[in-house]
Amino acid sequence: VAELVRVERVYEMGEVLVHALDGVDLQIERGEYAAIMGRSGSGKSTLLNMMGCLDRPTAGTYRLTNRDVAELDDDELSSLRGRTLGFIFQAYNLIPHLTVLENIEVPMDYAGVGPRESRERAEALAERVGLGDRADHRPTQLSGGQQQRVAIARALANDPSLLLADEPTGNLDSSTGQEILDLLTHLNEAGTTMIVVTHDAKVAGQAHRTIHMLDGRVDRILVRP
Amino acid sequence: VAELVRVERVYEMGEVLVHALDGVDLQIERGEYAAIMGRSGSGKSTLLNMMGCLDRPTAGTYRLTNRDVAELDDDELSSLRGRTLGFIFQAYNLIPHLTVLENIEVPMDYAGVGPRESRERAEALAERVGLGDRADHRPTQLSGGQQQRVAIARALANDPSLLLADEPTGNLDSSTGQEILDLLTHLNEAGTTMIVVTHDAKVAGQAHRTIHMLDGRVDRILVRP
Ligand SMILES: Nc1ncnc2c1ncn2[C@@H]1O[C@H](COP(=O)(O)OP(=O)(O)OP(=O)(O)O)[C@@H](O)[C@H]1O
Ligand SMILES: Nc1ncnc2c1ncn2[C@@H]1O[C@H](COP(=O)(O)OP(=O)(O)OP(=O)(O)O)[C@@H](O)[C@H]1O
Ligand SMILES: [Mg+2]
Ligand SMILES: [Mg+2]
């Protein structure tokens, strides 16, 4: 469903070049649950942003559902993202003036879902991530882990076929983290393709494959027996 | 060095009261390394903010180095914070238009440290947290874990006698996380009192005591043998 061929992402800092991605070859199968691990700064978020069409390679090719992303214009990319992708950001990127429910509804508004259905689905998702009693709070009125869970619920709003999660349990205690992991594995068993950047061995432990990154490249891939 | 007596922090959300802290009694000894654990939303960050004088109780008393914080005005609080406290925020709170080195220097500027000494110390701290080659990047040009490490370096800039850390390894891989944990335990062995909110059992494992919170109260305290 996703294929990277010799993908590079280079940043120019004056005279210095930063190779955030330094030649990545990777294929993700439909229905797979892939974990991405690696040192802080090794390129995991950059890779995930690439796969979520939030960034473009400076070299190499990225194909999503067999379409070369470089050949899509911004509108086509945007529509592809809205319909098929769910993205959980490492920094959450919640909208500060919207409530928990309104934040969860944002992708549904973009997809043209009606207000009643949208509100019901947002309430169900808020309950699902344990925020039923925080529905009307705004992000600054939430704990770090609660904000993380709003970001998770929002990513699931349009029932995406591909979910990209950047350290979705990083600010959760082990018991809340396990609840989120159970939710993710359920979705994967129901057919959602899942790519999860994680530092948590338990989260990687549920994956079919774990991709280890080092200095902007894939260093090794471990397959679960 | 820090004492809370029946501390409460209540938020009013229209008719609903949220008891973020619901009667906390706690004493932290000079030189101690205390870990705080508990479910997402249980009040850990609220407690840490209270101890760092970033927030005031709605009931109860908080004494820092034997002074009742309620009796200090904002200037006195601000000066106390600048001189004796280091704070690592759960969301980092870096200044977007400043570089890594400039962000680390901010507390030193406040303490009146000269520019040359300030720059040397910032460079040493950046090296110490593995960001020597990212010194001139701005926060948006850093990975999540790199931003976290800038926040850590900044908190250590004035060699504080009391360090308050809110999930300092939450976005770090286990090997970078271990480097940070080693740095923190070294500082504690050298005399820095340390209160660390964490979900990481390894970080709590190094603490003299682990304080478990539940629903805004201290649920139990485990003492390391
Ligand atoms: N400004 C606010 N208004 C209303 N409620 C708030 C506000 N800030 C925090 N809360 C609530 O207070 C409770 C405690 O928040 P706190 O940030 O201390 O939790 P935490 O233990 O640090 O959680 P996490 O592990 O997720 O970071 C949470 O349930 C949160 O929703
Ligand atoms: N805008 C930018 N300009 C320059 N360098 C950048 C920029 N954004 C990221 N980088 C660098 O690219 C590298 C990869 O960043 P990335 O965010 O992908 O790392 P990561 O593996 O997700 O790390 P973490 O585990 O800390 O989140 C880092 O070394 C970072 O400093
Ligand atoms: Mg990252
Ligand atoms: Mg917190």
Could you characterize what this model shows?
- The structure is a homodimer of 225-residue chains.
- Chain A is α/β, with parallel strands linked by helices and 225 residues long.
- Chain A is 34% helix and 29% strand.
- The first copy, chain A, is built from 7 helices and 10 strands.
- Chain A has a 6-stranded mixed beta sheet, with helices on both faces. A 4-stranded antiparallel beta sheet of chain A has the order 2-1-4-5.
- In chain A, strand 9 and strand 10 (217-223) form a beta hairpin.
- In chain A, helix 3 (100-110) runs parallel beside helix 5.
- The longest helix of chain A has 16 residues, at 174-189.
- The first copy, chain A, is globular, with a radius of gyration of 17 Å.
- The first copy, chain A, starts with a strand and ends with a strand.
- Chain A binds chain B through residues 11, 13, 37-41, 44-45, 90-91, 130, 134, 136-137, 141, 143-146, 148-149, 166-167, 170-177, 199, 201, and chain B through 11, 13, 37-41, 44-45, 90-91, 130, 134, 136-137, 141, 143-146, 148-149, 166-167, 170-177, 199, 201.
